[in-house]
Amino acid sequence: MTEKDVSGASAAEPKATGYSWYVLSVLVIVYILNFIDRQIISILAVDIKADLGLTDSQMGFLGGAAFAVFYALFGIPLGRLADNWSRVKLLSIGLTLWSAMTAFSGLAYDRLTLTLARMGVGVGEATASPTAYSLISDYFPKRQKATALAIYSSGLYLGGGVSLFIGALIVQTWNAAYPGGGPLGLVGWQAAFLAVGVPGILLALWVASLREPVRGAMDGTPAKSSPTPFREFGRDLSMIVPPFTLYGAWKRGPAALAINIGAAAGFAGFAWWMIELTGNIPQWSAVAFGYYAVFSWASTLRANDPATFRLIWGTPAFICTTLGYGLVSLAAYALAFWSAPYAEVVLGLPKQELASILGANGALSGFVGVIIGGRVADALRARNPAGRIWMIIFGVVAPIIPIWIGYTTENAVLFYTMNFLAGLFGAAALGAAAATTQDLVLPEMRGTATAAFFLGTTLVGLSFGPYMVGQISDLTGTMVDGAYVGNLRIGILSLIGVAPIALILLFYAYRALPHAEATLVERARAAREGA
User: Fold this and answer.
1) Which of 164, 150, 62 is nearest to 419 (CA)?
2) How far, in Å, are 217, 322, 372, 443, 514 from residue 390 at the CA level?
3) d(CA 392, CA 272)
């Protein structure tokens, strides 16, 4: 190759521009607020639990499935809408909604009203990552994708960390100023929700000013949006909301209807069995509803868009990567929710101190871990198409010892240190997992693929992580001074048990990924022709 050829190839190679990095910085700020609104309930958990008379498993439901199921389900049609409509407009609308519902959480007066508010936050936040992932993929070339996604994902840890500090500060300041309740009778935890919800409505105006990039241009395959995006959105939405799911199945034929009814009965039976075992009706009702809705959506996608179905649900490498990382996120979400209540209740640490230290820990460990993990994952990918999977495996194995040491010690310094390391190691997997799933689909399918990926991190990770810890805590608790107290230590240590399952899934993904990525176009074409 001559010098001229090299120069021409370099000039033709797509590059991220200064505006690309500007857009990424705005998206990071949005994601920080996203996780402040989502995670602030953690530092408020002890106050909410006492004020509303809740158990650990009920708090786990509020911190998990109450949000996660609706986040995951609405992520499906909203992910498709992100593939077919303006991602900038969609993100602006979603940001306004979840910020308003966070503020509404501050007006909640019982478990039901707080549950409804958390559901609303989940619906609004479902717009964030499908739009952001798709935008980033169109603003950054493939060689920088994991790094860009890792930088975006740092907002998760920065927001989660800041939420602890802000929440504790507002609660203590408000309760000191208004010991018996302030205006409208609001107490500290309610004021905290209001204070973090309102600013997001203003941020939505900034997001609306961003430019919409050409879809797929960075990969050299420009794709057009659908001329009827809202018709498709309405159709997708109707396919996940019973009883419209039955109508959709009936339109596909008697066999499809019978399968759908059988699936509904199976999920209902599973929920009934788990309710009998645990007594937690909201948790298992929400989970059964969520999984049935996902089944109905996947069935519809298979009938209406066989190529997208084939590259997502019909690709074992995609499924195993998503579920494997979903189990990493199960532990991460559980620790993010329960570490502050654990330190406050079990170790007896002051709320403001633990919030400041755990908040800084979470922000720093997550930020450093996800950035380094993304860079290392890109380097591993350059050597091996499946190289990024090793970084996800690292995220499974490396946190085990820090979790064990951190949640068996009585020493506060050692607890903080081990919590930092567990967060650092777990965060390293996120950029690798996200980039891997994006590479396993075609550009016009990325919003839908992101929604499917987040099904793993929500319906597996967030739905079960906080709840599992809370349920096991309730089951292993003891009577103290005439009151039943859960055992959060055993609940948190139980997270180690998911590691072997995650490893089996990820080792399979490692073997299957190179062939899956190399045959993307052929398999999509075969699926379309077969339809």
Assistant:
1) 164
2) 30, 14, 14, 24, 14
3) 34
